[in-house]
Amino acid sequence: MDESLDRARALLLGAQRVAVLTGAGISAESGIPTFRDAMTGLWSQFRPEDLATPEAFAANPKTVWDWYASRRERVAKVAPNAGHAALVALENRTPHFTLITQNVDGLHARAGSRNVIELHGNIMVDRCFAEGCVLTSADEIPGTPPRCARCGALVRPGVVWFGEALPPNTLDDALAATKRCDVFLSIGTSNVVEPAASLPFTALQAGAAVIEVNPERTPLSARATIVLAGAAGEVLPRLVG
Ligand code: NAD
Question: Are 57 and 161 in contact (CB under 8 A)?
Fold first, then answer.
């Protein structure tokens, strides 16, 4: 690990353009379980597809709302960790830096990251289920879920569900940063949810060095330039510090 870490540090120090992709793993050390790990206790009877699709919300709005309410509560209680902080330090010293995240917890912004692309939206944002518009004070409206004050449709969490399109421009911006970067970091993602899963391979094809940080092997591991096997909160401060 030490030799790989030194090589990865040198690559990042020499890079003008860095793109980073993060997944649920970077927030695990903050106390936010990965999607599947979260489905315990009360929620163990459901599959992600039962809770994270527009069809599930249309069929059982209260169940889906309650599930997201429990996740929101968790997100509100936790804080960014050393992994998030290391990426802020990396952004501060890198001329062109883009952070692409699949996470909906907003922890990168709370840590101080500035150029963040939230591919899957943000769990703290409320949207109208009919029109998609952002609603700023839905928490003041009674109901589980509440109803949009403008059109009366149900209020939904502002995340991207299975089968839904990504927020406008996010994928284009992520792809542009991926194709231009010298170094691409893939952190805490199982690399199976598309289209994010393809980004590291696009970076490799475009000639970038790809560094993976994950305690487990993923479909990217065999192709990555450097694999740093470990937890983001331990590896990233050593990589950037
Ligand atoms: P995933 O749950 O499929 O994979 C998590 C990955 O993180 C695994 O490969 C695991 O080995 C790794 N990991 C676990 N602990 C780690 C640590 N301490 N440091 C580094 N890596 C660690 O997550 P995914 O790839 O992000 O895809 C799941 C989907 O679920 C995404 O679409 C995402 O939007 C959503 N999700 C978001 C959050 C969040 O916002 N925090 C949480 C759960 C799921």
Answer: yes
What's the gap in Å between 32 CA and the centre of ligand 1?
Answer: 9
> pTM score, two decimals?
0.94
122 lines ligand 1 (CB under 6 A): no
CA distance 20 to 43: 31
Take residue 101 and report the two structure tokens written for it.
Answer: 């995240």
Q: Burial level of 192, CB count in 10 A (0-12/13-18/19+)?
A: exposed
- In this model, does residue 58 exceed pLDDT 80? yes
For atom 37 of ligand 1, the residue with the nearest CA is 103
Catalytic status, residue 108: no
- Catalytic entry in 84, 96, 108, 120: 120
Q: Is 20 exposed, middle or buried (0-12, 13-18, 19+ CB in 10 A)?
A: buried
Tokens of 92: 């501060």
Q: Burial letters for 55-64: b for 16+ Cβ neighbours within 10 Å, e otherwise?
A: ebbeeebeeb
